[in-house]
Specification:
The chain is an all-alpha fold. Helices cover 62% and strands 0% of the residues. The longest helix is centred in the middle third of the chain and has 27 residues.
Length: 243
């Protein structure tokens, strides 16, 4: 914990990597950072793909994890992302269509195909697999919700790491106690726990919530073409959580 006031919090600049730069670099076979960009895409979309295979295609968890591996291995092959373009819509829409096509083909030949060989598998930690389902949603809504949850978790991790580097641990802890934990603490209770003023708690929560929104905007901006699309996508993401 530290004793910095809420007024001293200033957002750190984001890396200059926006729009479809991650996707475009991932599909560029000549890019020296292609592997890193592919890993970024896979970490963002692996869980939505995994759940889509379970919910829409009725696969068992182990089969879904195996086929999700196959799907991203396919995407990592040169040329597989060539059809991905901001002019053709959002990247997750491209992924849904690509997944549908690949799964249909895969299920047709799966019994006769021997997978593996010398291809590289995407590292997946089984402990990171989702454990719960959500009823009442269409496959597209479920995919989008899992995408939103993945982005939110990444945004919170990024926010916490950034505030720690800036020595604003108290700000994040106030935000965690008053917003993230269930049930959330009152500002008064949080002030007593952190040994700070209630007004500082209120300011910390307000500023950290705004900071989280900016982190989310940056993450969303990586997969759309322009700022207007980013604003629309961010509104949709927040609508998912508020709905």
């Amino acid at each position: 914990m530290n004793g910095m006031s809420a007024r001293e919090m200033t957002p750190a600049p984001f890396p200059n990597q926006t729009a479809w730069s991650v996707v475009l670099n991932a599909r560029n076979a000549d890019s020296q950072e292609r592997r890193r960009h592919l890993d970024r895409l896979f970490s963002t979309y692996w869980k939505p793909v995994y759940w889509a295979l379970i919910r829409s295609w009725k696969l068992e968890p182990n089969d879904a994890a195996d086929l999700a591996q196959e799907f991203f291995l396919h995407l990592s092959e040169e040329g597989s992302l060539e059809d991905a373009s901001p002019q053709r819509g959002r990247f997750r829409t491209f992924l849904r269509l690509k997944l549908h096509s690949l799964v249909v083909d895969e299920l047709r030949r799966r019994s006769a195909q021997k997978r593996g060989g010398d291809r590289r598998f995407v590292p997946i930690d089984a402990r990171e697999l989702p454990e719960t389902d959500r009823g009442g949603l269409s496959p597209e809504q479920r995919f989008d919700r899992d995408w939103a949850l993945t982005l939110m978790h990444e945004a919170i991790r990024t926010l916490e790491s950034g505030l720690k580097v800036e020595r604003h641990e108290t700000a994040f802890e106030a935000f965690r106690l008053c917003v993230l934990v269930q049930p959330p603490k009152t500002y008064r209770d949080c002030a007593e726990v952190l040994h700070i003023k209630e007004s500082d708690v209120r300011n910390f929560v307000f500023r950290t919530r705004a900071r989280l929104r900016e982190v989310l905007r940056h993450l969303v901006r990586e997969s759309v073409e322009n700022d207007a699309d980013a604003s629309e996508e961010l509104s949709y993401l927040l609508e998912i959580f508020n709905g």
